[in-house]
Amino acid sequence: MNKVRIGIIGLGNIGQVHVNNLLKGKVPRAELTAVADAFPDKLSEYANKGLKTFNDADALIHSGEIDALMICTPHFQHTTLGIQGLEAGLHVMVEKPISAHKADAERLISVADKHQDLVFGGMFQMRVEPRYIQLRDLVQSGELGELIRVIWIMTDWFRSEAYYQSGGWRATWKGEGGGVLLNQCLHQLDALQWIVGMPSRVRGHVGIGKFHDIEVEDEVTCYLEFPEGASGIFISSTGETPGSNRFEISGTKGRAILENDKLIVTQNSVPSDEWNKTSKVGFAQPETTIKELPIPPAEEPHAGLLTNFVDAILDGEQLIAPGSSGIGSVELANVMLYSGLLDQPIDLPMEGAAWEAKLNELIANSTHEKETREVSGEDFSKSFRR
Prior knowledge:
Layout: E1 4-9, H1 13-23, E2 30-36, H2 44-47, E3 52-54, H3 57-61, E4 68-71, H4 77-87, E5 91-94, H5 102-113, E6 120-122, H6 130-140, E7 147-154, H7 161-164, H8 186-196, E8 201-208, E9 217-225, E10 231-237, E11 245-251, E12 254-259, E13 262-268, H9 272-278, E14 288-293, H10 301-315, H11 327-342, E15 346-347, H12 352-364
Parallel strand pairs: 1-2, 1-4, 2-3, 4-5, 5-6, 7-10
Antiparallel strand pairs: 7-11, 8-9, 8-15, 9-10, 11-12, 12-13, 13-14
């Protein structure tokens, strides 16, 4: 095989991004051959472009027209479609999140582990953006010293009521499994754990429908504790404008701040813990140097990560974002919300089955006029669009 035939399920906003990247040749050695969507009237434009079209996901998966499957559907379908694809012998790339909740992510990963000959990737394109690569390098290299504090204020997700009314699955326990954390913040949560690692304890405070007529969270403030003693804060909202996007990482050797497309690094001449023990002056601080690191543009990050996926299939190249690594962001989204609903801290790793049971309870008690069904490994609706 010298080219990977790719099929896409779900032709909503993100599905169209991947369709355009593939049709415009932005992913070398990849060919978009087929698409599927639950709305047949939307498929004619793709048929006119020479693509095979299906209004049934199973038909696409077993069509013989594709080598790899991209899943761009609402969250709860990611698990079932991912499992179907893998068991049909297809390589699989799943859009964020890999599953709506941790227990389903564990089910999907378990199946992927049984098919080691297949490539299982997650679409976490922030991992190929230079700014986050630079932040990770600063942390992993020890240039910032021992981690002290992490603060990410991510409130520039403003959404109007019209956004939430644009799809019946949006902002419902049944349709998404959560709100701002699982939908908007998944990439930030992935980057957070990819850069500084997973916390060991979480205490979340959430606003359920605080700004919108929805049943899920649209505001969160979360306190994080890390295994070696560092602390953190994660704040997000879809009801605040103007919003902020400020990511600050502090260590014993310095601090990095990413904000307004600038990465500013302040470094101590002497590590703070060493200065603390050796300084003879109570109010003195070590001298610092401040530098702004240039940030190269993030050129086509979606296409870049998909290219890595194709290279992994054809050449055995190491995945930048293995699908199994996507469980970290799912767990963070779940545990922040679960902690807020329980009004108590939760230690990590969290018990996936406990949140799954709570989520089923929320779905069953939903006040929205939606059909209620359990969330374990189930294809919730025929409508597979994001």
